[in-house]
Amino acid sequence: MIIGVSGLNGAGKGALVSELSEHGFSVHSLSDVIRQKLSRLGLEETRERMIEEGRNLRRAGGPGALAQGLVAQFEAGGRYAIDSIRHPAEVDVLAAQSGGFKLVWVQATEEIRFQRMQERGRSGDPASLEELRRLEARELGSSDAAAQQLLAVRERADLVLDNDGDRSALHALAAPLWGEG
Fold first, then answer.
1. Buried b (16+ CB within 10 A) or exposed e, 22-57
2. Which end of the chain offers a freer environment for a tag, N or C, measured as fewer CB atoms within 10 Å?
3. What domain count does the chain have?
4. What is the pTM of this model?
5. Is-contact 12 170, C-beta < 8 A?
6. What is the DSSP letter of 79?
7. pLDDT single digits (tens) 3-19
8. How far is 98 from 13, CA to CA, in rounded Å?
9. What CATH number is associated with residue 11?
10. Does any domain span residue 31?
């Protein structure tokens, strides 16, 4: 079983993936493929650089390239949680794997997402709501086939989790994914 996780920045994708890990899922992130490439190039990891390098990798290997490299490592019958799905072609690659696939979209209000980003203090997170809006506008959709297409990914979601609450609320909403509730 593969559970794909997507959503806007700060929505709680990482918290959901952590919950899945605690319930026996092997966790992988498509963003890690980009991070590894930046590291090999000796480049600092910024949100802008991550977006651009993801676009470069999709141009070179096709829109599903990040997911294709990842699924090649999977074992039949495994339980996998995949974070940072940002393109519908990645959904297609994951959905084509045997064993089942569910795509979960995690969402929260803009204010809550911005507050979470401020609290986590990750490099490249926006310093203002205006900057958040500008960054997300690039990620939502584009005529560039290699660019992020988050709106198209959201349309493909099997389950939408409203994550405006705390971790225990998220746990309760997500429990059916690992067989509880």
1. eeebebbbbbebbeeebeeeeeeeebeebbebbbeb
2. C
3. 1
4. 0.87
5. yes
6. -
7. 999 999 899 999 999 99
8. 24
9. 3.40.50.300
10. yes
Is residue 33 situated within a structural domain?
yes
Partners of 7 in beta bridges: 106
The answer to the question of residue 181 being in a domain is no
Phi and psi, residue 104, nearest 5°: -115, 125
**pLDDT, tens digit (0-9, with 9 covering 90-100), for 96-140:** 998 899 999 999 999 999 999 999 878 778 889 999 998 888 888
Any residues with CB less than 8 A from the CB of 25 and at least 6 apart, and which?
3, 79, 80, 81, 178
β strands within 9-137, DSSP E: 26-29, 80-83, 101-107
Q: Is residue 53 part of a domain?
A: yes
What token pair was written down for 106? 């995690």
Q: Which residue from 86, 70, 71, 80 is spatially nearest to 26, judged by alpha carbons?
A: 80
The predicted pLDDT at position 175 comes to 86
Domain extent, residue 165, equals 2-176
